[in-house]
Amino acid sequence: MKVDGGIPTNLNKVASAAQEVEAAGYSGGWTAETAHDPFLPLLLAAEHTTDLELGTSIAVAFARNPMTLANTGWDLQAYSKGRFILGLGSQIKPHITKRFSMEWSHPAPRMREMILAIRAIWDCWLNGTKLDFRGDFYSHTLMTPFFTPDAADLEGFGVPKIFLAGVGTLMTEVAGEVCDGFLCHGFTTERYLREVTIPALARGRAKAGKTMEGFEIVGPSFVVTGTNQEQMDAAAAGTRQQIAFYGSTPAYKPVLELHGWGGLQDELNTLSKQGKWVEMGTLIDAEILNTFAVVGEPETIAPELHTRYGDVISRISFYAPYQSDPQRWSKVLADLKAA
After folding, report:
1. Quick one: pLDDT at residue 326?
2. Which of 27, 33, 117, 244 has its CA 20 to 30 A from that of 269?
3. How many helices and strands (H and E) does the chain possess?
């Protein structure tokens, strides 16, 4: 199992942080699209590391188009010498239409088409195939030599892998059909992964005439740990808040429903509309916390992660929505790598 760390999006901190992640022994470093662009930090990270895999988890796909994503992915893959992973996610409708002022419709079919379009563009640039992609959402039929990157840019490693994030079954099937890997949302559970996510991925793979062999599943897991009770309490509080925030989103209700907690989503959604973020966290009791998160002292985390996910995921990262220090994770990382 590969273990990944995070790359900050503050450009002034990227170089040293990426070097620290690589020196600590992590397999990959990932950025997220929150308050800053997710791609720019990876250019700096590539410059200041040599072996660390670099990916976006996630970049908002529908805030962009296939051509812009193809360009960015190509350039980062070339500069990093084959270490880039293009991790995409759809976001939800209000953010796409109100924050990014972009079009929203039929997210799963649109995502499928977007990824196929990116691959068609890369095929044109790498192999000289005529660009003639015509879909319901995207159409790319013009490419001249002036706008075509040099195929030699990717010599020796080829185009980036594409990973897709999802929660619902339709988007998950798309990932299985047209992607190289799947980014599990932090708001998932072992039961949901095994009973819903993996069967959906397998259905998608079957559509493409493929098996799960070689397909990568990335499992970010909530982790609550600390070296003393004060740290443990702070970690639990921060994680409860994040679980509550995700739980308030209607799109993620199926995860709660699988465990018989569908009514909780309604409560959380109501409180979120009232801006009662602190109160939301108090609804996440110990049973819910321990279902979504691995909770314990540092030496107990790796064994529990392996028990829950060791046979089904390819790589894992620690989802810790609270202030933390690197020392807290050194024991966990060492144990995971030794297992």
Report:
1. 67
2. 33
3. 15, 12
